[in-house]
Design a protein that fits this description.
This is DUF1694 domain-containing protein. This protein is α+β, with helices and mostly antiparallel strands and about 160 residues long. The protein has 7 helices and 4 strands, in the order H-H-E-H-H-E-H-E-E-H-H.
Amino acid sequence: MSTEDELDKHLQSAIFGTPVLHPDEQHRNLGTFHERLDLGITFTQAYRHDYTMPLQTEITAHPDYQLLIHGLLDPDILEQYVCLATKNNLRFAIRTDLKYLHEPDSLAIALAAPSAITPATIDIDQRFPEALTPPTPTMPRQLLIQRLHQRLEHNRRDFHHHLN
């Protein structure tokens, strides 16, 4: 590689940051690769159920994993999973960058391994169907989706407000 190519590469890195491998995949998966995910909880799931018990089971089985939490979750939900990680001395990260997807069916919480694994599914409802106790306040799915969009939009505005 010529000196000019090296200089161009260095300038590109300084301007745009270090290149990321599969950025779209990492944005969908809270900054990690899909093959490292053990369990995933979407925003819709997080707002409908408490998954601390099934997560506790997986954390106990895999204390070297990391819990990834989307920063746009409501603070009370976010806090319960941070407390779970802290109680178990589990590494965790709160992803606050808006590049991470934040739609109702996007990942809000993920348990990630340090290297590739092959679970049959990452969907927590499929892996732990016994955790599916009926939500306390039942509401139609469309109303839930509407409220999720409202909460996410509210959290986005708050996030931008705190940046300024």
